[in-house]
Amino acid sequence: MPRMKGVNKAKAVRDYLAEHPRARTREIVEALAKQGTRVTDKYASVVKCSRKKRGRPVGSVTAKPGVGLPEVKAALALLKACGSPRGAKAALAAAVQIKALV
Fold this sequence. Notes:
Largest sheet: none
Shape: rod-shaped
């Protein structure tokens, strides 16, 4: 598909926003119309919003508190070692008492 000759509308919107960062969509459309570039409200809004998304990380890879696979494996090992849930509860109660003393 051949490229269209003329003004890059997205660049024009971005340039205007660089000069006027708090400009509203309607202001952008009117200012670009005075310069001779026709842009719709919706297009200016899309370019304006996509500018905010740039440079943001896709997702954070941080450790979140909670129960993960290592904790589940440790709990299963405790249950196997104690033989029953009652034994595991007793072992955990003893661990809490020891922690309080230390």
